[in-house]
Design goal:
The chain is α+β, with helices and mostly antiparallel strands. The protein is built from 26 helices and 26 strands. The chain has a seven-stranded mixed beta sheet, sandwiched between helices. A six-stranded antiparallel beta sheet has the order 6-5-7-13-8-11, with no helix packed on it. Strands 16-21-20-19-18-17 form a six-stranded antiparallel beta sheet. Helix 7 runs antiparallel to helix 13 and helix 12 runs antiparallel to helix 14.
Length: 725
């Protein structure tokens, strides 16, 4: 057991994860990007920016809380390796990210674009509605025509801009000879505009520019609600790629040279200093240390590293410098292959067909056929193309594309608000529908069901003098077991013994002199103890037999309640972990989980989830680490804690904002209720159409009346959705 250069916890662990972020402008020429998984609030932002800006050579630093990143503009001689210790001393975990790999995720224009189009449609519809009121109030002849032409001048450019998303998607569908929900929407808008222009040109009494704009406004409102139900839809594969180290120290003819990782080749020698992340897959040729593999394998404790051990890109070197001979670089590294697995899994998830899509398959062709038949029937009956166009437009508008368009986003927005108040953030548009179908729940262990922080279990079994010696040795190390031992001893009122010549032996532990006797705290093999199934550290003092200090991983709050609720609901619960068999078995027994798998590699987790899916299971995956990312993306629906690695959080559909796991089971119940509300909304829209469509076909509803009826149905659908709140 040796010192672990694990980053300190966030400076304000009590703060709540709220959507607050710096409003300062981001530097344009960003040279360094840092991931800050431990930041939570505006106080964190202020502290990080103050510490970074105070560092010599830093010109500007800005923090984005949503992405949990700091973007730093600095002089060319400043490296991330200089800034990371600054933040760690301030109590924040920090990792370097490659700004180039993140360029595609920096800006998300979709939300702003939709909001702008919605605002234009709303502003234009209000103005045209005012002009329409004047016409309804009795304006005739030249005055009426003037108001109609002014309405056309406002409506045509406003719709051309605001309805562009519908036009684009409808054209894309028609080009491949396919119908979707946007095709009848576009036809309704175009027919209303053409009919209105026709009427205006012939000095007719009725124009329906306000109906076309109102329809566009409501549809955009539904589209924006849909967008707001999810976080920025960044690719988890891109986030994994961003974790790849951008620079490395290459050893050429005995000299060290900092180079871009992209320039490395198989066979090159690479120096990885303590605290550094492995830039390539390789084999250790010199040095001795410990490796933190928790992100890749889920192993709770560091692994002893010596000459001959194979390492993977993404692992963290903890205590001693290591020289690695590269065996795989670039796209061939294990980290990059994991990104490929995630990308494949993400593409599979995107094929999920939502309830709205299923409704559109039935709705779109029926509306087109009905409208076309109405046009032909009335044209044959009356011989007046104006009357036939008016009725065809009324049929398209009154058939409620808006109510159907709002049926899903209105419910998901209401349900998302309810879950957010319970500490869960819905990211993906179809996550609630998929969550309602879950019948199997797969949990990761370390960092998910457990906190990932060891706790001393047998403090009371040791004498005070032994604890004083152990405390003195433990405080000389930042290894997780040493930190846990020191914390427990300090809380029990133990004071450290006075030792001399305390040193750390990389890969083994710490030792020193106590009353002219050598004392050691560390691994069993080094101290003279016996390895067992339990996680332990050993203390050797003089000629006395070694003493064992045992540890356990503390259970996350609400874990037992969540698993009990899932089992009571008839769902299968499975535990899959990369941790050792003894630790996984002990936790499974404690929580009553009968089906568990230990020592699982990332691809093993993804394969297991895929096997369950192939059996017809709908899997909910709950995980937090890099080793869970592929499984999170492959699952039917996935959840990760807010404390999870960026890549895992991005790959998941739902983010758990707090530390308590109990809301997960409640979320499944809310999802089932939301699905029922969605189906109710479809039934409301159907009943409305059964009543309203015959009236439109019979010529008893003008396009304007159809637009008012459509608005009423949309409001009804929204009110039904609000019952979830």
């Amino acid at each position: 057991m040796t010192a672990q250069a694990t980053p300190a916890r966030a400076a304000c662990p009590g703060c709540v994860a709220a959507p607050v972020e710096s409003t300062s402008p981001v530097p344009e020429d960003v040279q360094i990007a840092l991931s800050l998984p431990g930041i939570h609030c505006s106080a964190c932002i202020a502290t990080v920016e103050r510490e970074l800006n105070a560092h010599p050579g830093v010109e500007a630093a800005r923090v984005n809380l949503t992405l949990k990143r700091a973007l730093v503009k600095a002089t060319p001689d400043i490296r991330a390796a200089e800034l990371i210790p600054v933040l760690e001393r301030a109590g924040f975990e920090a990792h370097e990210l490659d700004p180039g790999a993140l360029s595609a995720t920096q800006t998300d224009k979709a939300g702003r674009d939709l909001l702008m189009r919605l605002a234009v449609a709303g502003f234009a519809s209000m103005n045209v509605m005012l002009l329409s009121v004047s016409v309804w109030s009795g304006a005739t002849d030249a005055t009426r025509d003037m108001f109609h032409w002014i309405s056309a001048a406002i409506a045509l450019p406003a719709i051309a801009f605001s309805a562009q998303p519908f036009f684009t998607i409808a054209w894309s569908a028609l080009r491949v000879r396919r119908l979707n929900m946007d095709v009848p929407i576009v036809l309704a808008i175009l027919l209303a505009l053409l009919t209105s222009i026709w009427e205006t040109a012939l000095s007719g009494e009725h124009a329906y520019f306000d109906a076309a704009l109102t329809l566009t406004f409501f549809l955009l409102a539904g589209r924006y609600l849909d967008y707001r139900t999810r976080a920025a839809a960044r690719s988890a594969a891109e986030e994994l790629t961003a974790l790849e180290v951008p620079r490395a120290i290459q050893i050429v003819d005995g000299t060290e040279e900092e180079v871009a990782v992209a320039s490395l080749n198989v066979g090159d020698l690479v120096l990885v200093r303590p605290g550094g992340r492995m830039p390539v897959d390789g084999e250790i040729v010199s040095g001795q240390s410990e490796l933190d593999r928790s992100l890749l394998t889920g192993e709770t404790l560091p692994v002893f590293a010596e000459v001959g051990l194979r390492v993977s890109a993404g692992e963290v070197n903890l205590t001693g410098p290591l020289t690695i001979r590269a065996t795989a670089v670039g796209e061939d590294t294990s980290l990059h292959r994991m990104a490929d697995l995630v990308a494949i899994a993400e593409s599979g998830r995107s094929r999920y067909t939502s309830l709205a899509d299923k409704a559109a398959k039935l709705y779109a062709p029926g509306v087109h056929i009905l409208s076309a038949l109405s046009f032909l029937g009335w044209y044959i009956y009356s011989g007046d193309i104006r009357t036939a166009l008016n009725i065809a437009a009324a049929v398209l508008i009154i058939t409620c594309p808006c109510a159907l368009g709002l049926a899903v986003p209105a419910v998901t927005t209401a349900a998302s608000g309810r879950l957010f108040r319970n500490g869960m953030l819905i990211k993906h548009a179809t996550a609630l529908e998929r969550l309602a179908e879950v019948d199997t729940v797969v949990f990761d262990k370390t960092g998910t069901l457990t906190s990932g922080v060891p706790e001393l279990t047998d403090l009371g079994d040791h004498s005070r003098s032994d604890l004083e010696i152990a405390l003195a040795l433990a405080e000389a190390s930042s290894h997780p077991l040493s930190l846990a031992l020191a914390k427990a001893a300090r809380e029990a009122g133990i004071t450290p013994a006075i030792l001399r010549d305390v040193v750390e032996v990389p890969g083994y532990g710490t030792e020193g002199c106590y009353r002219d006797q050598r004392v050691r705290l560390g691994r069993a093999a080094w101290v003279g103890g016996e390895d067992g199934e339990q996680t332990a550290a050993w203390l050797a003092s003089g000629s006395h037999p070694p003493l064992r200090f045992t540890f356990t991983d503390s259970l996350r709050s609400g874990a037992a309640e969540a698993i009990a609720a899932f089992r009571a609901a008839g769902k299968d619960v499975i535990l899959i972990s990369g941790d050792a068999q003894g630790a996984v078995q002990a936790l499974a027994g404690k929580l009553g989980i009968e089906n568990w798998i230990a020592k699982a590699l990332p691809q093993d987790k993804a394969t297991k989830v895929q096997e369950l899916s192939d059996q017809g299971r709908h899997v909910l995956m709950v995980g937090d680490g890099l080793n869970d990312t592929a499984a999170l993306a492959a699952a039917h629906v996935s959840i990760s804690p807010a404390s999870a690695l960026d890549a895992a959080r991005v790959a998941s559909d739902i983010v758990l904002l707090g530390n308590d796991l109990s809301p997960i089971a409640e979320a499944c119940d809310t999802a089932r209720k939301a699905t029922r509300r969605i189906r109710e909304n479809f039934r409301i829209a159907t009943v409305y159409n059964v009543i309203a469509v015959p009236l439109a076909v019979a010529g008893l509803a003008t396009p304007l009346i159809a637009a008012l009826a459509m608005s009423t149905s949309s409001i009804t659908v929204s009110l039904n959705a609000l019952r979830l709140r």
